[in-house]
Amino acid sequence: EAQVTQNPRYLITVTGKKLTVTCSQNMNHEYMSWYRQDPGLGLRQIYYSMNVEVTDKGDVPEGYKVSRKEKRNFPLILESPSPNQTSLYFCASSLLGGRGQETQYFGPGTRLLVL
Amino acid sequence: GENVEQHPSTLSVQEGDSAVIKCTYSDSASNYFPWYKQELGKRPQLIIDIRSNVGEKKDQRIAVTLNKTAKHFSLHITETQPEDSAVYFCAATPYSGGGADGLTFGKGTHLIIQP
């Protein structure tokens, strides 16, 4: 089944404790992206990747890191989480590299609480 | 960068009536405008999209119109049904001649279908 998976789905952590949210897609998509969703603010892009070893900042990259060592995986890293990073995070992928113009398929979301 | 405004933030309509959600964008170079539907507790899913060379697109009860001159686009849902209740997001992305540009989303419209 074609899908985007994220792990963990729920995470409670404390300020400053490094964490990684994994994202994987099995559709051979070139383009992958991370968004955060906050009430009243919609979906805001954190980072995106056109292909392996190619990543770029979105609208709200501060406090986050990403890597794209393999085509299927695009982990989101929070080196030193802070309470303002409490949010619902979505990973998404699309077939074509560049511009995000094709249909984006979203993962199930990861709900993060930073205490 | 691109800025997308979406209105209204909440829309309540009687079942069977029509619903219209409007978005405006700032970057005249934007050329792809998707709409995503997010049901409660679920991931966003694409329901319809339109490209800048088309003025209108229809898929059963859903239609999208685009006015490039005024830089606005709208989602129209006719004969609304209870399953249409959800949050709807519009988005836009500009063409940059080769670079990757992510989607900029509006803040969302919570559509409530009253029985």
Walkthrough of the structure:
The complex is a heterodimer of chains A (115) and B (115). Chain A is mainly beta and 115 residues long. Chain A is 0% helix and 50% strand. Chain A is globular and about 35 Å long. The N and C termini of chain A lie far apart (36 Å). Chain B is mainly β and 115 residues long. Chain B is 0% helix and 57% strand. At the A-B interface, strand 4 and strand 5 of A face strand 4, strand 5 and strand 10 of B.
What is this entry, summarized?
With 115 residues, chain A is an all-beta fold. Chain A has strands spanning 4-7, 10-13, 19-25, 31-38, 42-51, 54-57, 65-66, 76-78, 87-94, 105-106, 110-114.
Task: List the keywords.
heterodimer, A: 115 residues, mainly beta, seven-stranded mixed β-sheet, 50% strand, B: 115 residues, six-stranded mixed β-sheet, five-stranded antiparallel β-sheet
Average pLDDT confidence of chain A is 93
Portion in beta strands of chain B? over 45%
Relative helix content of chain A: under 10%
Helical segment tally of chain B? 0
Proportion of β residues of chain A? over 45%
Architecture blueprint of SSEs:
The complex is a heterodimer of chains A (115) and B (115).
Chain A: E1 4-7, E2 10-13, E3 19-25, E4 31-38, E5 42-51, E6 54-57, E7 65-66, E8 76-78, E9 87-94, E10 105-106, E11 110-114
Parallel strand pairs in A: 2-11
Antiparallel strand pairs in A: 1-3, 3-8, 4-5, 4-9, 5-6, 7-8, 9-10, 9-11
Chain B: E1 4-7, E2 10-14, E3 19-25, E4 30-38, E5 45-51, E6 56-59, E7 62-67, E8 72-77, E9 86-94, E10 104-105, E11 109-114
